[in-house]
Amino acid sequence: MSDDPGGLAVAAAARLRHMSPGALARLRRMPDDGAAPEFWRLGVPDRPDWVSIVRILAILTDRGAPENRAVLHDAARPWGQVLCDGGDPRWRGEPHDRPLLSEQRLAQLLAARGNARRVLMTRAARAVAARHGPGLQANVADIAWSILAPDNAAILAKPYYRRFDGAGRGPETETDPHA
User: Fold this and answer.
1) Cβ distance 24 to 65 under 8 Å?
2) Contact criterion met (CB below 8 Å) for 27 and 38
3) pTM greater than the 0.85 cutoff
4) Distance in angstroms (rounded) separating the CA atoms of residues 5 and 88
5) Concatenated DSSP letters of 124-159
6) Domain boundaries, the chain
7) 99 pLDDT above the threshold of 80
8) pLDDT tens digits, 26-80
9) From CA 160, how far away is CA 179, in angstroms rounded?
10) Contact at 8 Å (CB) between 53 and 121?
11) How many CB atoms lie within 10 A of CB 79?
């Protein structure tokens, strides 16, 4: 496997797709010490960050028989964008629509470090999986980097706000009712 964290995450996601439903369930429930045999078989670094990354990838991987699972990784679907639209590329952000992860929750996630960051990322992944269901696609390298490089807020914020503002909500599209 590659030493590049993004490449490791993509390779891990590909391997998770072919695991049995029981193995994926164990990874979804895996404790922070990585005490699941499947974790060790993935060949990722033995660090708490990677336990969380693998847990998140398992949460986002389709349930059911391996042959019926979609490919999770899509480099064209940044994780920050998915946090905004809930994994729905048709999300239009109409005035009554809300992003999956509110701006306040995104700010909390961006400010969090260490275990707090890992916990918030896992919660966000569970929310995405619950809303989207099967067939979700996201840039899994972004998921890894957003945990491993928490000081780089642009990994999440830039695609989130591009999606949010591109849906007709940005300040440049607002009209002044007094004009």
Assistant:
1) no
2) yes
3) yes
4) 26
5) HHHHHHHHH-TT--B-HHHHHHHHH-TT-THHHHHH
6) 5-171
7) yes
8) 999 999 887 899 999 999 999 999 999 999 999 999 999 999 999 999 999 999 9
9) 30
10) no
11) 26
Q: Where are the beta strands (DSSP E) in 18-173?
A: none
Q: Which amino acid is at 1?
A: M
Residues 8-33 as b/e (b if ≥16 CB within 10 A, e otherwise) read bbbbbbebbbebeeebbebbbebeee
The DSSP call for residue 43 is T
3-state secondary structure at position 73: strand
Residue 139's Cβ-count burial label (10 Å; 0-12, 13-18, 19+) is buried
Paired residues of 138 in beta bridges: 73
CATH fold label, 5-171? Peroxidase; domain 1 (1.10.520)
Token pair for 130: 């619950």
Contact 42, 172 (CB under 8 A): no
Contact criterion met (CB below 8 Å) for 159 and 79: yes
Residue listed under structure tokens 């905004």: 84
Residue 177 three-state SS:
coil
